[in-house]
Amino acid sequence: MQTVLQARAVAGSRGERQPSESLLGGILKCGICGASMQASFCVKHRGDARVRYAFYRCSTRVKRGAAACASRDVSAPVIERQVVEKIAEVVRADPSLVALIAEQAREQLAAQKKSLAGERRALTRALRQDDARHTAPHHARLAEIKRESASLAGTVVEEGDVGRAVAEFHALWAALLPRERRRVVEVIVERVVVAGGGIGPTIAFNSGGFGTPVDG
Questions:
Q1: Does some domain include residue 198?
Q2: Which residues have CB under 8 Å from 44's CB, separation 6+?
């Protein structure tokens, strides 16, 4: 399992993560009118720097204006962090989720092996076509692929290993790509309702042993 997490970190360093992807789109609901909250962002100047602020806004306000709903924008990092903390609690408390996460990890491992094999074939073709001046980067990357493939070749995802990784949930979460994080949220969470007024979100978990709605 640790090998899988390390490989995810390597993949992320090559730019495969897209942090701007919405984690709670379609799941986050306005506590005032019941509409979905849409992910958005704005860019503000802070001195010489341009700072990007991600947030969720009630779709009623988006479509019909501020007068249609009294809700306020919700900081994306704040609400997402609150939801992830609740997911961590649920995952640690529900052993049945270990099997689900193990299966996800096996799929990730297979996808990594397939991706590396495809990249190796593409680089090998490129080496046959390029002149000597352009081959050094290709050879360097092929060497990296060989090392990564060798480390993954003998990796077996066992539920016991996953259980230990779940105990360190945040390290596991940090290793996932955005689409994989989104998948975890979809499996576990039915909806998140933002009440406003400084009150934390109410999170309803999907049926199947994931618990009942809790206040964040």
A1: yes
A2: 50, 51, 53
Pick the closest to residue 172 from 90, 101, 93 (CA basis).
101
Cα 150 to Cα 48, 102, 111, 143, 146, distances in angstroms: 46, 21, 15, 11, 6
pLDDT digits (tens, 9 = 90+) for 154-208: 776 666 766 666 677 777 788 788 888 888 888 788 899 987 655 678 888 875 4
Q: For residue 139, which phi and psi values (nearest 5 degrees)?
A: -65, -40
Domain count across the chain: 1
Q: Do the domain assignments include residue 106? A: yes
In which domain, by residue range, is 88 found? 2-13+28-215
> Rounded to the nearest 5°, which phi and psi values hold at 176?
-80, 150
Torsion of CA 101, 29, 39, 198, to 10 degrees: -100
